[in-house]
Design a protein that fits this description.
The protein is of the alpha+beta class. 17% of the residues lie in helices and 27% in strands. It contains three helices and eight strands. The chain has a four-stranded antiparallel sheet, with no helix packed on it. Strands 5-4-7-8 form a four-stranded antiparallel sheet. A hairpin with a 4-residue loop joins strand 1 and strand 2. The longest helix has 18 residues. It is globular, with a radius of gyration of 20 Å.
Length: 171
């Protein structure tokens, strides 16, 4: 009889641990806030109907950016160029072009927002060009100049003014 109670207590404790999120799940949330960021391998949907997913993240892409164009300037001291490669697929409900270069941003651990305009890299290799044909995927890069010490804590997100915000982990 005592063994049964031990098994019941063990099962209750296991269920409580899993419900509390202590089960070791490294996945993500629903993307609705920084605390509930989508996993890096999740597919997000933009406010205007494009699905996008992170294909690769290249930390310290400074050399690649500088080699792409002789007129590119290096990042400021303490910063590095960070390239995020995306795969973008228009759905049947697409409403206008994908404007990832202006609406996708990075959020730092100090809540600072990095844009591809203010924190630009210059001419980048494999710049993202997106087809508007539903079902056809496009791949390409976006780039930001970010503080080197923040790279591991950055989140990708869509500008909320477009009616949708998907926070997503980079790794």
């Amino acid at each position: 009889m005592r063994a049964r109670w031990m098994i019941v207590l063990f099962c209750v404790a296991l269920v409580a641990l899993l419900a509390a999120g202590c089960g070791g799940d490294e996945g993500g949330g629903d993307g609705s806030s920084p605390d509930k960021a989508l996993a890096a391998d999740a597919v997000a949907t933009s406010a205007n109907g494009y699905e996008y997913e992170i294909v690769e993240v290249t930390e310290d892409a400074t050399q690649a950016v500088l080699l792409e164009n002789q007129f590119n300037d290096p990042p400021a001291e303490g910063r590095q160029f960070l390239i995020v490669s995306l795969r973008v697929t228009p759905t049947a409900e697409v409403d206008g072009p994908f404007v990832g270069t202006s609406s996708l941003r990075l959020l730092g651990p100090d809540n600072r927002i990095y844009t591809t305009f203010e924190d630009r890299c210059g001419v980048i290799p494999g710049r993202l060009e997106v087809s508007e044909t539903p079902g056809s995927s496009s791949e390409g890069n976006l780039c930001w100049a970010v503080p080197s010490e923040s790279v591991d804590e950055l989140l990708l997100f869509e500008d909320a003014s477009r009616g949708n915000t998907n926070y997503q982990k980079l790794s």
